[in-house]
Amino acid sequence: MASRLPVHRARRGHSGRVSEPVTAAPASARPPGTVLAHAEAAYLGLALGDALGATVEFMTPREIVHHYGVHREIVGGGWLRLKPGQITDDTGMSLALGEAILAKGGNVVPLACAEAFDAWMRSKPIDIGNTVRRNLIRFRNSGNPVAEYSDHDAGNGAAMRVLPVALVTLGRSEAQVRAACRAQARVTHHNALSDAACEFLVLTVQDFITGASLGQVFRQRISPLVQQHPEFAFDERPRRENPSGWIVETVQAVLQALVELDGFEHCLVDVVNRGGDADTTGAIAGMLAGALYGREALPARWLQALDPDIHERCRAQARALAVPD
Ligand SMILES: [Mg+2]
Question: Which EC class is the enzyme in (predicted)?
Fold first, then answer.
């Protein structure tokens, strides 16, 4: 799949990467300080992608070209009329979730997650997803923090906020990690495709943070995801432009950008210029690319533009979650 944007340097095809050694990087491949730096980069990457993408949320690629040429600066605006560097619900719900996990000593407790999301909703955030709102109101009325299963609740609202779970469960067994994913996700999204995406994203972030290459992740996470849930197939498919809030289209756009493009900035510029749910594709791509490429890859001008309070909260929470006392 070739990029249509002139700024991008096309990555070699997948067939080249799958010839790399099959052995996964051990969890301890990196010293703790380097793991922490990649954890911080994942959190800052999430916020940067959110702030960058929000400007062009709900625009088509053609509209973005008309207004911006290639959108590559954190300038605010968009349908939410954001200040430059302001973030949206993707980062806001992640921070709320992380605080709830820390308050429970590193455990992901559905009731604590639901209460934290409800408090966040009461703070009158600048935006909120329909499924999130509906199931938090249901929680207020019933007190049950777990949503009923629904084939329709396959939006990206649980996946956009998974990062605190990835950081706090570093080093735990895969079964424990998957259970923690479901504990936070099903507060608002109880759906098989949402669960699959959340667990895939968390395990992938952990692999990158602990030193796995993109080729290794392609074999041990991406290929199994597509085998188990063919809806997510993205390779050798048309460029996923104008991705909706459906988790399948979100993951397809993010994976096409991550796999096809080298470097943090190129990946994020590619994914947000697809338009659609660009703050969430930006946030998820930023989380993955930050975890993969690390702190040095984050553009200084984007970090300068990011809301300073959000910048500090993301860094502090990454440290607290990834390095428990
Ligand atoms: Mg948002």
Answer: hydrolase
Separation of 276 CA from ligand 1 center, angstroms? 11
Ligand 1 centre distance from Cα of residue 160 (Å): 9
Q: How far is the CA of 25 from the centre of ligand 1 (A)?
A: 33
User: What DSSP character marks residue 77?
Assistant: B
Q: What does DSSP assign to residue 255? A: H
Give tens-digit pLDDT for 212-247. Answer: 999 999 999 999 999 999 999 999 899 999 999 999
Distance, CA of 47 to CA of 283 (rounded, Å): 6
Ion ligand 1: residues, CB within 5 A, are 88-90, 279
Please, are residues 302 and 74 in contact by the beta-carbon 8 Å criterion?
Answer: yes
Report the CATH architecture of 28-322. Orthogonal Bundle (1.10)
- What pLDDT is stored for residue 29 in this prediction? 73
Q: Please state whether the predicted TM-score (pTM) of the whole model is above 0.90.
A: yes
CA nearest 125: which of 155, 95, 169? 95
Compute, in angstroms, the gap from residue 277 CA to the centroid of ligand 1. Answer: 8
State the residue for tokens 């990690």. Answer: 177
Contact 42, 318 (CB under 8 A): yes
How many residues appear in the chain?
325
CB 278 within 8 A of CB 54: yes
* Residue 5 dihedral angles phi and psi, to the nearest 5°: -95, 135
pLDDT at 12: 39
Assess contact for 227 and 263: CB atoms under 8 A. Answer: no
In the reported structure, the alpha carbon of residue 13 is separated from the centroid of ligand 1 by a whole-number distance in angstroms of: 31
Interval between CA 54 and ligand 1 midpoint (Å): 7
> pLDDT tens across 158-196, in order?
999 999 999 999 999 999 999 999 999 999 999 999 999
Distance (Å) from CA 223 to ligand 1 centroid: 28
Asked if residue 21 has pLDDT above 80, the reply is: no
